[in-house]
YgjP-like metallopeptidase domain-containing protein (Pseudoalteromonas luteoviolacea S4054), 220 residues
Amino acid sequence: MNFNYQLKLSRRRKTVAISVKPQGVVVHAPYGICEKWLKGWLLSKQAWVEQKQQLVTQKLDLMSEQLDSINIYGQPFALNFGATMSFIDHQNTCVHLQSLLTAERTEQIREIHDLLSAELTGYLEGRLPYFESLMGSKYKTLKVRFYKRRWGSLSSKGVLAFNSALACAPKWVIDYVIVHELAHYYVMAHNRAFWDIVRRYYPEFKKAKTYLKEHVKVIQ
């Protein structure tokens, strides 16, 4: 094997698992496992581990890059660090952050997402009444926060949620996500009936879907 790993044994564990983190590779296994079998199993997973290690390295490289701009409604806004207050300056296409340039990346991103949440909430509160009336859909609560794996959702309890990162996308794309989620008021599954509803109220939905797919890394 071309990788080092830390072995963690547990009397409660019944299966073998591998986790690849920036700190290294950790193998979780049941107490008393056959060492010969484990080495053979790890050898069979070598290509997978190496692939995961490359992804972790790429992610670390990306995180080390300096933030200098962010998209707001599809347009680039410069980032100004060390401001007296945090706000989005639409007139001068600039996002002012209280975080210092030398601050932790997680702190900067947290502050950015707070601003994006407030920005998107304002836009949604202005657009939702129109689409709600147009489509006849209903919801009880609006929720905006950052999600890693979804743009929005409508729960069976009427909670309408949106990813704060959508504030980085053009408004016509945000409108598509609004229609998409409100369509779930009638059909929860992504079947033909659902897409017929989306098409009725947003004919160019495929264009918006393609935009989100192609720009997901830029937006998030």
